[in-house]
Amino acid sequence: MSNDLTDKTAFITGAAHGQGRATALALAREGVNIIAFDIAETLQYPGYKLGTPKDLESLAKECSSLGVRCLPFAGDVRKDDDIVKAVDRAVQEFGKIDILFNNAGICAYGLAHELTENEWDVMLDINLKGAWMVARRIIPLMIKQRGGVIINNSSVAGLRGMNRLSHYAASKWGLTGLTKSWAIELAPHNIRVISIHPTGVNTPMNDGLAELEGLTPKEIGEKSAGNLINVPWVEPEDVANAVVFLASGKSRFVTGSQFVLDAGLLSK
Ligand SMILES: NC(=O)c1ccc[n+]([C@@H]2O[C@H](COP(=O)([O-])OP(=O)(O)OC[C@H]3O[C@@H](n4cnc5c(N)ncnc54)[C@H](O)[C@@H]3O)[C@@H](O)[C@H]2O)c1
Question: What is the pLDDT of residues 50-79, one digit of tens each?
Answer without folding.
Answer: 999 999 999 999 999 999 999 999 999 999
